[in-house]
Design a protein that fits this description.
4 helices; single chain; four-stranded antiparallel sheet; four-stranded mixed sheet; 13 strands; alpha+beta; about 240 residues; about 30% strand
Amino acid sequence: MRRRLPLAMRQEIRQHWRLWNDRLNGISFDHAKGAVEQPCSLGLTQPIMPSDFFESKLANITRGAALLDGGLIGINQNWSFWHRVSRPNAANGFLPGRNIVKGKLVARSGGGLCQLSSMVYHLALLGGLTVLERHPHSLDIYQEDQRFTPLGADATVVWGFKDLRLHNPHPFRVCFGFSVERDRLVGELRSEANLTARHVEFVRVRLERPWVQVNTMVNQRLQVSTVYEQKQGLQVVT
C-alpha cells in the first residue's frame, strides 16, 4: 500500500510522524539565528564540481546555504538540517537536481543539498559536536579527481526519511556560517569561546570489490565505520 502512494505523499506522512515522535520524546531543536562573538572559527572550503544539472545544484546549494547561515545552537541544544531548511520544493526556492534513489541517479527537487549537509557533518566532527543522526550515501559514485569531500565525510539527507541532527555539548553557543563564492562552498563553525579543532581522519579499509569501508577517526578514536558500494560512472536516468 505504501509503495502505491506518491513519493511526495510518503515523505509528508513520514515527516509528520517524525514531528509527532519528537514531541512524544521531548526532543526539540534550536531555531535561533544570529551571530556569536568568535574567538574561534573552524572552516572548510569545497569546490562545487561540474555535474548533471549543475546550475540547479549551484542554485540549491546557494539557497540551502542562505537558510543555514547564522544558525545558532545554544548550550545543550539540538540542531536539525530539515528543521532549518524545511521542505526542498519549488515553493521553498529549490530546483530539480541529481539524487541517488534506489541505486540510480535521478532528478529530484533539492538535488545537491547533500554537499551542504556533508559539510555540516564534517564541521560538527571538527568542532566536537555530538552527532545524533547521520546517514551515509549507499553508493560511492565519484572518481578520486571528482570528490568535493573525503569519502566518509558525507551525510545524505532525504526529506521525511533521513535527517542530519546534532547536539551542542559545549558550555557556550556555536553558530554555523555558510556562503557560496562562485563555484565554491565555504562553511564555518563559530563559537563564543576557544574551540580546539579535533583531528579528523577518514581511513579506508580494503574489502572485496566493489565494496570499501571507511573508518572515521576523531582524535585517533573510532567514531563510526561506513561501508560503500563503489559505482563510478553512473548516468542520470530520465
